[in-house]
Specification:
It is a single chain. This protein has a domain of 65 residues. It contains 4 helices and 5 strands; from the N terminus they run αβββααβαβ. By secondary structure, it is α/β, with parallel strands linked by helices. The chain has a 5-stranded mixed beta sheet with strand order 3-2-1-4-5. Helix 4 links the parallel strand 4 and strand 5. It is elongated, with a radius of gyration of 29 Å.
């Protein structure tokens, strides 16, 4: 004869799923990475402004041309030779959006080979 148990055994999986779900909800509510902006704040619109690179930055155009302060530069070597020792420590590089990544890496390598200790790539940053 078979004995019937009044309490059935359940799998503990459902309980674990419930605990994980509650932890997820808790961390979503309690753990914010940054404080939200004030709801009354209206951000400045910069869509119509003309963008310009910083004046002391080496600009790399989409076709690989280099310019510094509005003047064409033949190569990274020429640029580094025209700079004093203090300016060679940190080189600001402004690449065009359409410049292939391989060309940007090649340019950075060339600047390093010619004495640049640190290369900062200047990019556009957007608040989303």
């Amino acid at each position: 004869m078979r004995r019937v148990c009044s309490s059935s055994r359940r799998e503990p999986t459902i309980a674990l799923i419930n605990i994980v779900f509650l932890m997820l909800v808790f961390f979503m509510v309690a753990g914010t990475l940054a404080q939200p902006l004030d709801t009354d704040l209206k951000l400045v619109s910069t869509a119509d402004l003309e963008g310009r690179p910083p004046p002391d930055a080496l600009v790399v155009h989409a076709d690989g041309r280099l310019s510094y302060r509005g003047f064409e530069i033949a190569s990274a070597t020429e640029y580094m030779e025209s700079q004093d020792a203090a300016a060679q420590d940190v080189v600001r590089l402004v690449p065009d959006r359409e410049l292939p990544a391989q060309e940007l890496v090649k340019m950075a390598r060339s600047l390093r080979d010619n004495g640049a200790k640190s290369i900062l790539v200047v990019t556009e940053r957007a608040l989303q």
